């Protein structure tokens, strides 16, 4: 049975559903098993350089049950077929690589040699939204903050501008908090704004 090691959901969600799938057996003994998959997987997120971050996602496929003497997983090519790739509104797929290996792990049953397929994805966040909604207003508010120091103390607008800038910075901080993914790393933009 084929299994996605970085599955998102219950333990049953990682197994490949083989109901209704067909196997093609060649006269030379090669067996081709083409199974359509829809897998929910997870990747760790490093949001340190948010919104200019890159995410590397490694997904591993293998069998917990059968070792390499019983099941060898092979890929046809080293490249990933992206003909049916659906464009995402938040990330660009920069790189997609696939490779096969033989893992020697003691946690697997059998002799410990298991055939694995590794899928590596490099995702880059699209930054236009954050440039216009977060970065540009933040720079403008910083300039306004400095401009309030140029106003004379007797000017009544000095307090009004200072409070407006403070409240606007608070609203932008809430906007950033809503858009930053949940992770253990703290974005540099949040450190700057604090």
Automatic annotation (TrEMBL):
Signal peptide positions on this chain: none
Subcellular localization(s) per the UniProt record: Membrane
Entry keywords, A to Z: Membrane, Transmembrane, Transmembrane helix
Neurotransmitter-gated ion-channel ligand-binding domain span: 18-127
Matches recorded under InterPro entries: Neur_chan_lig-bd, Neur_chan_lig-bd_sf, Neur_channel, Neuro-gated_channel_TM_sf, Neuro_actylchol_rec, Neurotrans-gated_channel_TM
Chief location bin: membrane
Residue ranges occupied by any Neurotransmitter-gated ion-channel transmembrane domain in the UniProt entry: 134-192
GO MF term set: extracellular ligand-gated monoatomic ion channel activity; transmembrane signaling receptor activity
Cellular component, GO, one term: membrane
A Pfam family assignment: Neur_chan_LBD
Record field: transmembrane: 129-151, 157-177
Membrane topology: Multi-pass membrane protein
PANTHER family: NEUROTRANSMITTER GATED ION CHANNEL
Protein name (Swiss-Prot/TrEMBL): Neurotransmitter-gated ion-channel ligand-binding domain-containing protein
Source organism (scientific name): Dreissena polymorpha
């Amino acid at each position: 049975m084929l299994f996605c090691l970085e599955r998102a959901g219950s333990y049953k969600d990682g197994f490949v559903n083989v109901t209704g799938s067909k196997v093609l057996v060649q006269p030379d003994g090669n067996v081709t098993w083409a199974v359509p998959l829809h897998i929910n997987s997870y990747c760790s997120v490093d949001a340190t350089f948010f919104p200019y971050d890159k995410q590397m996602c490694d997904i591993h496929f293998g069998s917990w049950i059968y070792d390499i003497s019983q099941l060898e997983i092979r890929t046809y090519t080293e490249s990933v077929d992206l003909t049916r790739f659906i464009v995402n509104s938040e990330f660009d797929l920069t790189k997609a690589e696939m490779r096969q290996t033989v893992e020697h792990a003691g946690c697997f049953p059998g002799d410990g040699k298991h055939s694995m397929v590794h899928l590596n994805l490099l995702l880059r966040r699209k930054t236009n939204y954050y440039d216009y909604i977060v970065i540009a207003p933040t720079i403008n508010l910083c300039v306004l903050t400095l401009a309030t120091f140029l106003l004379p103390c007797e000017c009544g607008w000095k307090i009004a501008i200072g409070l407006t800038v403070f409240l606007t910075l608070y609203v932008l901080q809430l906007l950033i908090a809503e858009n930053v993914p949940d992770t253990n790393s703290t974005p540099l933009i949040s450190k700057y704004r604090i």
